[in-house]
Automatic annotation (TrEMBL):
Protein name: Pyrroline-5-carboxylate reductase catalytic N-terminal domain-containing protein
Pfam families linked to this entry: F420_oxidored (PF03807)
Organism annotation: Nocardioides panzhihuensis
Gene Ontology process terms (BP): copper ion import; NADPH regeneration
The Pyrroline-5-carboxylate reductase catalytic N-terminal domain, residue ranges: 8-104
UniProt keyword list: Oxidoreductase
SUPFAM superfamilies per record: NAD(P)-binding Rossmann-fold domains
Organism classification: Bacteria, Bacillati, Actinomycetota, Actinomycetes, Propionibacteriales
An example Gene Ontology CC term for this record: plasma membrane
GO molecular function, one term: coenzyme F420 binding
Domain of life: Bacteria
Amino acid sequence: MSTLTGLTITVLGGTGPQGGGLARRFAAAGLRVVIGSRTADKAQAAAAKLASVTGGAVTGTDNARAAAAGDVVLVVVPWGGHAEMLKELAPDLAGKVVVDCVNPLGFDKQGAYPLHVEEGSATQQAAELLPESTVVGAFHTVSAVLLDAPDEESVDTDVLVLGDEREATDLVQALADTIPGVRGVYAGRRRNAHQVEALTANLISMNRRYKAHAGVRVADI
């Protein structure tokens, strides 16, 4: 927690299931959280609800103001709006650690499958669009249902953290560690993000088959 002391954690897309779950867990851990959304009213309503149930310091505003307010900014938005939003927010995200949590997935009658990304992955796309930011990939394989479940005190999973800058990946690992049951594990450089993002398609298939909320645990570390 010492490395996170005094930092503000922004969650862009914090009104959705995954973003809201992450914001809930960070607020419960005593971190200062800002929720971002396309409209300030929606973000403020979500923040007020989270503050009431966690007792944490949670505020909400539009995406641009939320991005500017954060020291560490998580991007938890649908893949379809990923590039457009990052282009718009690039000035607000300059100089910050940006954690890309987006999984480029498609869905058809056979289930989920990974989409082709020209840059290689959502994380690599973010790094190209945000040259003045330090981009880390993380939180791709964590169940939104478990994150946002008030009766689930612990989330039994590892978070695979990908990035090229050791200080930034260490920081994001520490952020993951604030969630009870979760461990942040360094999983390689940004160029290795594709297979981690794509792995979520496999987890969705497992969850459908076994009616579960599967995650990832790395052995022997």
